[in-house]
Design goal:
heterodimer; A: about 110 residues; mainly beta; about 0% helix; globular; B: about 110 residues; four-stranded antiparallel beta sheet
């Protein structure tokens, strides 16, 4: 039972490059989330989705885009990487919005 | 406004000693309550959750938490910590009517040998 799978685990980008962080879940969860976690800080919600085709902004959406074409997948796109986007990114999913979330292992992203 | 407060940024405990991590929340109604643990370099793992009923809930790894409605608190406890408990602990609250959880800022637990 894989749960929530994130790829890649580590990535170094140059300023201005673009990339997509992949997230897939096999629990048939409707809700999916993207968080960023900066050193010593808590979780900041970037985007969330309540089902295929439905996404909305969280607390810190600037510089990011998402799509949700299937229940399983929720990729996060960085269009023009900036040093301020250096962070650890977590994808999570839940069956119902206010209930327990299942997390992936994270993607550690450095932008130089 | 809905919020979760974890007053202690860091806590240092000797191995074998007892532990209590504090969590207070501000919410319109009694929310669902959660504690998560994040080991270094890892994702977050659910330790325990409270939805309703018995206010003392048991979780994994020997942890328990007690919901106190009058104090709007959901403190995490462990009678005897092990070096492997060194991690960051997050409290969160939610309801079915909300799309997301409200997260505390986390408490980093340091274990002294």
């Amino acid at each position: 039972n894989a749960g929530v799978t994130q790829t890649p685990k580590f990535r170094i980008l140059k300023i201005g490059q673009s990339m997509t962080l992949q997230c897939t879940q096999d629990m048939n969860h409707n809700y999916m989330y993207w968080y960023r976690q900066d050193p010593g800080m808590g979780l900041k919600l970037i985007y969330y989705s309540v089902g295929a085709g439905i996404t909305d902004k969280g607390e810190v959406p600037n510089g990011y885009n998402v799509s949700r074409s299937t229940t399983e997948d929720f990729p996060l796109r960085l269009e023009l990487a900036a040093p301020s986007q250096t962070s650890v990114y977590f994808c999570a999913s839940s069956y119902v919005g206010g209930r327990s979330q299942h997390f992936g292992d994270g993607t550690r992203l450095s932008i130089l | 406004a809905q919020s979760v407060t974890q007053p202690d940024i860091h806590i240092t405990v000797s191995e074998g000693a007892s532990l209590e991590l504090r969590c207070n929340y501000s919410y319109g109604a009694t929310p669902y309550l959660f504690w998560y643990v994040q080991s270094p370099g890892q994702g977050l793992q659910l330790l325990l959750k409270y939805f309703s009923g018995d206010t003392l809930v048991q979780g994994i790894k020997g942890f328990e938490a007690e919901f106190k409605r009058s104090q709007s608190s959901f403190n995490l406890r462990k009678p005897s910590v092990h070096w492997s408990d060194a991690a960051e602990y997050f409290c969160a609250v939610g309801r079915d009517s909300n799309y997301q959880l409200i997260w505390g800022a986390g408490t980093k637990l340091i274990i002294k040998p």
